[in-house]
Write a structure and sequence with these properties.
3-stranded antiparallel sheet; 106 residues; 0% helix; mainly beta; 13 strands
């Protein structure tokens, strides 16, 4: 999975989705913006049910600051949903995890 924020797509400025112009994007450069196609989560939680290099190879969670998480069964990762992150390609095996997103109450 490429670099992303939870529930956000990186879109080119003035991109159309379902033939409608997107106005509520957050500009991140002269040509690109973030568009939240669902509600914007505030906290993300990942619960791992498989172990890196035992159940699967690849699938490392990585943050822009260079932090890399090598999943272990029973590990919990709680992070700000505004943190840009990615998951490297799974090369073999099966990576099992649960993703839970928390939203601001109204």
């Amino acid at each position: 999975m490429n670099w992303h924020l939870d529930n956000a797509k990186i879109i080119t400025h003035k991109k159309y989705i379902n033939k409608e112009l997107i106005h509520d994007q957050i500009m991140i450069s002269d040509r690109h913006g973030l568009y939240y196609y669902l509600e914007k989560p505030i906290i993300s939680l990942i619960i791992y049910e498989s172990t890196y290099n035992h159940d699967f190879v690849g699938g490392i969670l990585e943050f822009l600051d260079g932090t890399k998480i090598y999943p272990q069964r029973g590990m919990y990762i709680l992070f700000d949903s505004n943190e840009v992150h990615r998951v490297t390609k799974i090369l073999s095996g099966t990576r099992i995890n649960y993703l839970i997103k928390f939203y601001q109450g109204s």
